[in-house]
Amino acid sequence: MERFRELVFESVRLYAGADSTAQINLASEAAQHNLATFITGYLSSFINDCEDEINSLQFMLDEIQNSQKALSSPELYSELNDSINAQIAKLKMMQNLKGDA
Fold this sequence. Notes:
Elements: H1 2-16, H2 29-71, H3 74-100
Helix pairs in contact: 1-2
């Protein structure tokens, strides 16, 4: 929120011009509209960057949640169990062949 406040302040300062003592007459609806348009234009790239970051984080969160679902699925448990049993069977067979030699 502090960064947003700084950006709005900077945009108003730029709108007022180089003379920092300039006063903006906001009593006029046209002046209000012009200031709002200027601030919107000034902040648009910042807002777009934030939206991109949010979308990227949302994608990563979705991927993490999907991975967690996949890791806790019964299908994965069954596949891992079958793989472990097959490996144990191979090791026992190798042990028996070693004993015969």
